[in-house]
């Protein structure tokens, strides 16, 4: 398995640890949403045409990942930007992106999720919620984790800022007690190597969750492609790496 350059990762790990220690915010987060704070968004300021360079979501685009974890699971993850949109409860029209996780051996689905994204007029990509279903032996066993911004107090969050800067922090989603992921920008000059190729510079983020304080994940985004690598460094050893990408 190809690995990240250890010298490059050591440098950004120092920054990541500093971010974690101070809560991830050096004052450069501006108006990015934090924690449980309420946001009042104007639907007129949003579009389903998502062209943020770190994750352009042109309908028809497809990313295929190989995922492994500490329990030995070997899975295929296929993320596809559909031509469908959804009117979110907060009034914003969002792009539907389908995420299918299947067992590599059997080919059976493990989880199927429709994620809802929209981009504001500044270029920030917002996450509006998801409809998810987990499977066992081809049958749905739970839809836990599903939420929609504007329903039952759920709030949207930022997946990627329009102008990423080291030290920025933001909430990615907020549904009290169920979905409280937070993100922070660690580096604009990281690098990652995956089966699809070597990427430098790459945007590196850290994902945390106050509901699971021991969990820490780093994600890497390549310009004009999107997410290329996700690595858990605490609370697990999951690794998800890009195998192929086709633009819609």
Protein model, in words:
With 248 residues, the chain is mainly beta. It has one domain (6-246): YmcC-like fold (Beta Barrel), CATH 2.40.360. It is 6% helix and 50% strand. It has a 16-stranded antiparallel β-sheet that branches. Residues 1-12 and 14-29 have low confidence and may be disordered.
Number of strands: 16
- What is the beta-strand fraction? over 45%
Chain oligomer state: single chain
Low-confidence stretches: 1-12, 14-29
In N-to-C order, the SSE pattern is HEEEEEEEEEEEEEEEE
Largest beta-sheet characterization: 16 strands, antiparallel
Morphology call: globular
Instruction: Assign the CATH topology.
Output: YmcC-like fold
User: For the terminal residues, how far apart are their CA atoms?
Assistant: 28 Å
Count of spatially separate domains: 1
Structural class: mainly beta
Radius of gyration (Å): 17 Å
| CATH architecture call | Beta Barrel
What is the topological layout?
Elements: H1 6-21, E1 46-47, E2 62-68, E3 74-87, E4 93-103, E5 109-120, E6 125-136, E7 139-142, E8 147-148, E9 155-160, E10 169-171, E11 173-174, E12 182-194, E13 197-208, E14 216-222, E15 226-234, E16 239-246
Antiparallel strand pairs: 1-5, 2-3, 2-16, 3-4, 4-5, 5-6, 6-7, 6-8, 6-9, 9-11, 10-12, 12-13, 13-14, 14-15, 15-16
């Amino acid at each position: 398995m190809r690995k990240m350059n250890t010298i490059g990762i050591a440098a950004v790990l120092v920054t990541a640890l500093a971010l974690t220690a101070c809560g991830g915010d050096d004052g450069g987060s501006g108006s990015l949403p934090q924690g449980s704070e309420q946001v009042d968004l104007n639907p007129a300021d949003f579009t389903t045409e998502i062209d943020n360079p770190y994750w352009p979501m042109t309908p028809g685009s497809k990313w295929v990942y190989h995922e492994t974890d500490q329990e030995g699971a070997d899975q295929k993850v296929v993320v596809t930007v559909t031509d469908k949109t959804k009117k979110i409860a907060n009034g914003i029209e969002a792009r539907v992106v389908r995420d299918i996780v299947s067992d590599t051996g059997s080919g059976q689905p493990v989880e199927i999720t429709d994620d809802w994204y929209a981009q504001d007029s500044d270029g920030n990509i917002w996450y509006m919620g998801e409809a998810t279903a987990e499977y066992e032996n081809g049958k749905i066993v739970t839809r836990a984790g599903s939420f929609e911004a504007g329903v039952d107090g759920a709030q949207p969050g930022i997946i990627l800022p329009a102008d990423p800067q080291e030290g920025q922090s933001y909430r990615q989603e907020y549904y009290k007690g169920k979905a409280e992921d937070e993100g922070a920008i660690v580096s604009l000059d990281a690098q990652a190597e995956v089966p699809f190729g070597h990427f430098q510079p790459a945007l590196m983020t850290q994902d945390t969750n106050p509901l699971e304080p021991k969990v820490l994940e780093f994600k890497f985004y390549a310009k004009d492609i999107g997410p290329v690598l996700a690595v858990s460094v605490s609370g697990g050893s999951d690794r998800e790496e890009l195998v192929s990408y086709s633009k819609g």
